[in-house]
């Protein structure tokens, strides 16, 4: 499993752009999953980095979590309304694991309460998905070209420049 710190060490520019865009949208991202019939589903989500894990948690009983229970593959895309992508955008690819450790759930709920006031400390998590990243990419628009940065675990970032 690729931890968040391993990802940031191996892909510093991609992780920095992801975090910058993540914060700029109030933590909103778009999550791509696969429906039972194999067609794609796009859903809003507010992922969190917690204890060196990228956590994909949210409201229980939502279809996106049913999708992940059936097929753990996902793509997480930073939200944007800028058609020129002037601030760049990032995509993270991977699979999820449903972490059953209730002590982690309790610490996560406490942090969420401290950070946002949302109190789910007494609730039991249906799912607590943590991401194992299998790839990532960013797009950044420069004056006369487009830079696409790509990462795979165990490899350094590489940049493809399009003119």
UniProtKB/TrEMBL annotation:
Key words of the record: Oxidoreductase
SUPFAM superfamilies, A to Z: FMN-binding split barrel
Entry superkingdom: Bacteria
Signal sequence extent: none
Residue intervals of the Pyridoxamine 5'-phosphate oxidase N-terminal domain: 27-111
Annotated InterPro entries: F420H2_bilvrd_red/Heme_oxyg (IPR052019), Pyridox_Oxase_N (IPR011576), Split_barrel_FMN-bd (IPR012349)
Coiled coil: none
Listed name of the protein: Pyridoxamine 5'-phosphate oxidase family protein
Organism: Nocardia halotolerans
């Amino acid at each position: 499993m690729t931890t968040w710190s391993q990802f940031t060490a191996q892909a510093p520019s991609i992780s920095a752009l992801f975090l910058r865009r993540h914060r700029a949208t109030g933590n909103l991202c778009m999550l791509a999953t696969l429906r039972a019939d194999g067609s794609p589903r796009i859903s809003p989500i507010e992922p969190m980095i917690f204890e060196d894990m990228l956590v994909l948690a949210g409201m229980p009983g939502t279809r996106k979590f049913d999708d992940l229970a059936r097929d753990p593959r996902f793509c997480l895309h930073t939200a944007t309304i800028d058609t020129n992508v002037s601030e760049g955008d990032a995509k993270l690819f991977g699979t999820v694991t449903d972490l059953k450790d209730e002590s982690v759930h309790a610490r996560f709920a406490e942090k969420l309460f401290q950070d946002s006031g949302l109190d789910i400390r007494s609730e039991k998590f249906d799912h607590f998905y943590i991401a194992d990243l299998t790839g990532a990419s960013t797009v950044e628009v420069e004056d006369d070209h487009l830079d696409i940065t790509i990462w795979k675990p165990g490899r350094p970032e590489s940049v493809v420049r399009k003119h």
